[in-house]
Give the backbone structure.
Amino acid sequence: MSHPPEKTLRLLFPQWQGGNNPPYYLGAKLLEWLAPQPTGPVEEVPVAPPQDLPLAVEQGIVARNELLEQLRQARALIDKHQPARLVILGGDCLVDLAPLILSQRTVSRGSCSALDRQPPRYHDTPTV
């Protein structure tokens, strides 16, 4: 008896507001372009493209309302598909964390991969 193939949801999450770094948006789109063809459903969390406007600070958090709405959208997409596996292609660090936590009850056996696009970090080397 053969078993049906397990569903892998590919979640494109081009969030950039959490890092307050607009290039994350483009990085997520590039990851989507570079990734192999999906074998299961693909969804994209709606994220507004960067603009030349400063992000609001709400309760000490940059873009708090936008981030919370994006997390709700990610949760709804994960719940919609109830995947066995989850592949996240995203922008800033929050794309890795939030869907993993939110999907604990929907992703069987905890199989999840997350790829984010972060620019290289350059630090000044202290002199002694």
